[in-house]
Design a protein that fits this description.
This protein is mainly α. The protein is built from 3 helices and no strands.
């Protein structure tokens, strides 16, 4: 496989991983709320779903960054992946013949 396909597969896999972590943390936080906090706290139930949703997104971002940092330390990124964004001035020009 070439670098562009590796990059595409990595982005798709990382996105899928992030969605799975967000859903799993949402379900776990919802179960925690229903079993532990709901019987104890009777006020503010309207905001519970929104806060659980926001916390699950925050947890997924934190987990994603930690896993990505570990992956970058273990894998030579430049060897296997093509850069997604390239600066305009970073393209190398072919050498010109001095005539």
């Amino acid at each position: 496989m070439n670098k562009k396909i590796n990059t595409l597969l990595f982005v798709l896999g990382a996105t899928l991983f992030n969605i799975i972590v967000a859903l799993a943390s949402f379900v776990l936080l919802l179960i925690f709320y229903v079993r532990v906090l709901h019987p104890v706290i009777q006020t503010g139930q309207d905001w519970a779903f929104a806060l659980i949703f926001l916390f699950s997104i925050a947890i997924s971002i934190i987990v994603y960054r930690i896993v990505l940092k570990i992956l970058i330390e273990k894998v030579n990124v430049e060897k296997y992946f093509d850069p997604i964004f390239v600066r305009k001035g970073s393209k190398k020009k072919p050498p010109q013949n001095p005539s």
